[in-house]
Amino acid sequence: MSTQLEMAKAGIVTPEMRIVAMEEGLSPESVCCLVAEGKAVIPKNVNHDIKHVKAIGKGLSTKVNANLGTSDECSNLELEGKKLQAAVAAGTDSIMDLSTGGDLDAIRSFFLERSPVMVGTVPIYSLATQMLRVGKPLKQLDADDLFSSIEKQCSQGIDYMTVHCGITRQSVAFLESSERIMPCVSRGGSIILHWMRERNEENPLYEYFDDLLAIAKRFDVTLSLGDGFRPGSIADAIDAPQISELMILADLASKARNFGVQVMIEGPGHVPIEHIKSHVELEKRLSDETPFYVLGPLPTDIAAGYDHITGAVGGAIAAAAGADFLCDVTPAEHLGLPDDTDVYLGVIAS
Q1: What are the percentages of helix, strand and coil residues in the chain, rounded to 5?
Q2: Phi-psi bin for 231: left (phi > 0), alpha (psi -120 to 50), beta?
Q3: Which of 152, 161, 258, 314 lies 20 to 30 Å (CA to CA) from residue 304?
């Protein structure tokens, strides 16, 4: 079965492209061209029926994602159901299941069955959680474990997934020589970084990127190349580790498109307000306008409890500069676990 990207390259307008065209007020042929060029993606797993199919990319309306999911401290499907309803009621275009507590497979299935919008995950989260539960140290994780977990989630129907492929020996070297206040704030990035240091090996997501592409292509899963070295404070923004990783991700995005796999690139995070526009433009230039997915971004570090507002400020600037996909930030971002009201406010603000 061909992916949306492969069909677009062949000039075939798919039903999903027609749906997107109607929503965006474009011709189906225009959408097909954007997908063929890799400037837009339509995240939809072949195993997942989505009520509201969306496209992310150049010339399209800016899309918004809501992060959901359980933790060891709070694993309640009823609450997750309320959060999902709140996100949908607020108009979210996507949800991500970032669960680390409870029955992770069941929770993932819960979201896939009930979400009317695309569903994303970060596979390394669940794998690391499962290893922790059985008392297995992270350094014992091997590439087979990682790719098996990714393939399982793809087969369940996940539409897009964050994979931290840009944390490599090269980008780690830049991190280790940097003077960052907060070296690595990405949870998934920290797991990969710890594994690499413990084993003195290259990141398997980078080393065996072709294997990752083969899995993603089989299910037409869109890869969201995660920014493991995103800045965790505005003082750390636009530095060597971040830009080194971005350059690696731009190269991998090109490889993914050549393989027939749809791809996005993720961005920060905490960025001074005067640098948001230039950073979006840099990503677009380096990556040949690969769709850009940003967290917020947050132009200040000192608004805990009001990060949905600062995230909306940063998001508006980023979107005006060309960012395609905003991950909402809730009022609970730096304080605790969000409830359904937090999720609603976060999506509404974005």
Answers
A1: 50, 10, 40
A2: beta
A3: 161
Residue pair 245/229 in contact (Cβ under 8 Å)? The answer is: yes
Say how many residues make up the chain. 350
Q: Is 308 inside a domain boundary?
A: yes
Report DSSP state, residue 96: E
User: 326-343 burial, b for 16+ CB within 10 Å, e for fewer?
Assistant: bbbbbbbbeeeebbbebb
One-letter amino acid at 78 equals E
Measured distance CA(230)–CA(298) in Å, rounded:
12
Tens of pLDDT, residues 216-266: 999 999 999 999 999 999 999 999 999 999 999 999 999 999 999 999 999
Locate 115 and state its tokens: 């979400």
Domain extent, residue 190, equals 50-349
Q: At what angle do helices 143-156 and 123-133 cross, to 10 degrees?
A: 120
Q: Tell me whether residue 211 is in a domain.
A: yes
Pairing of strands 118-121, 160-163: parallel
For position 280, what pLDDT does the model report?
Answer: 98
Pairing of β 94-97 and β 63-68: parallel
Residue 217: which CATH number? 3.20.20.540
**What DSSP element (H or E) covers 21?**
helix 15-24
Q: What is the mean pLDDT of residues 115-134?
A: 96
Tell whether 29 is covered by a domain. Answer: no
Rounded Cα gap, residues 332 and 236, in angstroms: 22
The total number of structural domains in the chain stands at 1
At residue 264, φ and ψ (nearest 5 deg) are: -125, 165
pLDDT score, position 72: 86
In a domain, 90, yes or no: yes
